[in-house]
Amino acid sequence: MVLISLWLTGGRRLRHVGYLVDDPLVQRLCGLNSIPCDRSISRWLGQFTNDALQALISLNSCIVEEKLKELNLPRITLDFDGTFYHAGTKFAWAFRGYNPHKRFSKSYYPLLCHIAQTGHFLQVRNRPGNIHDSKGALAVIQDCIEQVRALLPGVIIEVRLDAAFFTQPIVSYLSRAHVGMW
User: Which of 41, 99, 151, 177 lies 20 to 30 Å from 106, alpha-carbon distance?
Assistant: First the structure.
């Protein structure tokens, strides 16, 4: 709940939790007498296992699917984009790559898919920072489209893509799958 409160209040780093320490509304929302410091939260996140990650991914999918069914939208726009995340020197699977702000630092380059109408993230696939935006994108695009079609049969699906995703395999798949592009 502290992390959700941090996100809702616009915090972008764990150290920003310090701004919430004295907020009685955040304490009440979290059900805590005192808000943990950023180091305590960091230690807690360090215990996060792959099983916990898979459970979190499953929970996110359930929440998004439930909301999409409830909204009953006639058209779904899937927005695919890559973004970089500075990871520092101690993290596995982080490599030097395209990072315009910290050119020689190690980073991740996750591929994100979110529902444009609602802002929900449908899928997030983490990747090392030294790969091209479209690397592995076709599999993610196929998974997301299949997930939406299984959930909402008959819904019109569109995708929004950056120029990096306009490769022959991706465009051919979207054409065969009758998915609109823009």
Answer: 41
For residue 166, the model assigns a pLDDT of 87
149 and 101, same structural domain? yes
Let me know whether 76 and 37 are in one domain.
no
Establish how many alpha carbons lie within 13 A of residue 56's alpha carbon, considering only the half-sphere containing its beta carbon.
9
Q: Which residues lie below 8 Å from residue 42, measured CB to CB, with a gap of 6+? A: 14
Residues 91 and 168 in one domain: yes
Do 90 and 80 touch, CB atoms closer than 8 A? no
CB 73 within 8 A of CB 116: no
Contact, 121 vs 144, CB < 8 A? no
pLDDT number for residue 133: 72
- In 3D, which of 91, 112, 87, 90 has the Cα closest to residue 102? 87
Mean pLDDT by 10 residues, the chain (182 residues): 86 89 88 90 85 86 90 93 67 61 68 90 78 82 94 93 88 92 76
Cα distance between residue 69 and residue 170, in whole Å = 27
